[in-house]
Amino acid sequence: MSFLTGSRFSRPRRASSESCVRKRLKETVWQFCPQCRCLVARDAWFGAGKACQACGYHARIGSRERMRQLVDVGSFVELNAGLRAQDPLRFVDTRPYVERLREAYDGGRRDEAVLTGTGCIGGIPVALAVMDFDFLGGSMGCVVGERVARLIEHATAHALPLVMVTASGGARMQEGVLSLMQLANTTMAFTRYRACRRLAVAVLTDPTMGGVTASFPSLADVILAEPGARIGFAGRRVIEQILRQSLGADFQVAEALLRDGLIDQIVPRWQLRGELMRLLRLHAPKPVGAGSLALVGTVQ
Amino acid sequence: MNDAYVLPFEWPVVEFEARIAQMRAFAEGQGMDVPEAFEPLDREAAAWRARIFGSLSAGERVQLARHPRRPTARDVIQALSDDFYELRGDRHAMDDPAIVGGIGSFGGVPIVWLGHHKGSDAQDRRHCNSGMPHPEGYRKAIRLMRHAARFNMPLVSLIDTPGAYPGEDAERHNQGGAIANAIVEMASLTVPTVSIVIGEGGSGGALALGVADRMLMLEHAYYSVISPEGCAAILWKSAAKAPFAAQALRLTAEDCHALGVVDEVIQEPPWGAHRDPAASAAFIAEALQRHLSWLLALSRSELLQRRYTKYRTMGSFSEVQE
């Protein structure tokens, strides 16, 4: 049945028949791409890290899953897992913040909006921070700021390259001005990291907005993005309200950012690990005494 | 007094004061000289004002911080530094009038001034985009920060912005990146830095000029991660709930001081800085002089270490053993 892969599966007229098809598909090795409605082999879908290779659709994934995709098997060691959010403002909107927090923690997970630790990518040890949009919109509160800052300090102390994968709606409003200070907290740690001359790579995924774009990811030496990721500082709706006109479909989308010179490359998920490996190898610390170039091939 | 600049919560007392003035004018017109007759009325008006200003809600404080007559960054710089020499332009694309900066001496020491400028009247406000900088504005700020480092001058920044400008071009020119770079530049400056929130401290757009050794804040200024209107629109789904959001965000000067974000709250003259800009400037000058001379006595490495520790320990979280 491989001839069906990548081709457009014609949509059955009646919804019931479609759901019937879906049900049958669940038991098989095929599934629909949510965007282009292509039939994709489940192996291909998961092999690409939950992305459709036909239309470039990238499903949102959690931080643990992303970490598994990026690091060598068994090499990940989590850092600062014990940090827990507090409610410094005793913030209440339509619901108390503590309630929202409890719910987010209770969903069978102990992660915050960022997962940090060390691991190896193609045998090269790195420090990684991966954000998770599913935890309160990936918002940067005090725990996120502190975990990232401590990771950067760890990377500085051990001279490790830094890989930061972002997905966030911005600063966490419920922690007020203290969450704004996390921009300064993470940036402060970054000032010392720069002195150790190791590579920092940011991978911006959908969505990366607000305060997060105004801190550590923008300071990376190389900035990559996933296809179609929405990236920006001010929200699209806010800008549309001010301009009183709607913006183009590609506004604040990774492809437009590449054209405008804001990012270096757009990397599909199934190539990300390989691209990171290439970058890390190119930026490997130089051996002592290296000063001459060895000419290769026929150049003479 | 221009009616347009009377804040809603001031109305009753302003009306009362206007009546007293009318009566006084009438009495004088009749040739009566009875100042003692007005004393109780004046006392009553003053007490009323004191009551109102003694119990302002967070939402009302935000209105005061946005008062159109409130002294702007340019006003404060000119009051504190009579030889201010303005520097302009980001050396790449444009000069953003929402950022004002230059060199001026304060207490005999040349310092670099930097601030958000909202504009002094309607036309000026339009020109300055109400103090909402474009990325070019932050690049201009970075240029001025480098100037301070190069000539070993302390940097004083005055924060007064609703936020960075949310616009199509601003986004395409990397608003987030410009702010991030301003923050890292200011964080790693090798000279003493003092920031003063003089009006609105609106989110990242404010923080870009506000990573400093000493953070000061005027009594009726606010500093917040998001505008109360923006917060209300997102969490309450209605911008009309802004007063509730203002309360919840703990954005007043006392709250910011209690949260450890601000080192000192600078007193304002009675009923707000706009009632007496000269007195307000004097309070600012006193505090600035005290903090700057303390910072100038520190060695460069000690300065950087203290700043690092200050910002690395900002935040609130608990830690459990896993």
Q: What can you tell me about this protein's structure?
A:
The complex is a heterodimer of chains A (300) and B (322). By secondary structure, chain A is an alpha/beta fold. In chain A, 34% of the residues lie in helices and 17% in strands. Chain A is built from 9 helices and 11 strands. Chain A has helices at 15-27, 42-47, 63-70, 97-106, 142-158, 176-195, 236-243, 254-259, 269-282, and strands spanning 30-32, 39-41, 77-78, 83-85, 114-121, 124-131, 162-168, 200-209, 222-225, 231-232, 265-266. In chain A, strands 3, 5, 6, 7, 8, 9, 10 and 11 form an 8-stranded mixed β-sheet that branches. In chain A, strands 1-2 form a two-stranded antiparallel sheet. Chain A is globular. Chain B is α/β, with parallel strands linked by helices and 322 residues long. Chain B folds into 2 domains: 3-55; 62-313, 2-enoyl-CoA Hydratase, Chain A, domain 1 (Alpha-Beta Complex). Helix content of chain B is 48%, strand content 15%. In chain B, strand 2 and strand 3 (109-116) form a beta hairpin. The chains are: A alpha/beta (300), B alpha/beta (322). Strand 4 (83-85) of chain A pairs antiparallel with strand 9 of chain B, so a sheet runs across the interface.
